[in-house]
Amino acid sequence: MSDLSKLIGERLRIARKEKGLSQEELGSYSDLHPTYIGQLERGEKNITLETLDKILSSLGIELNEFFSFSFLDEDLVIYQIVNRLKKLSNNDLQLILKMLGNH
Question: Could you tell me if 80 and 43 lie in one domain?
Answer without folding.
Answer: no
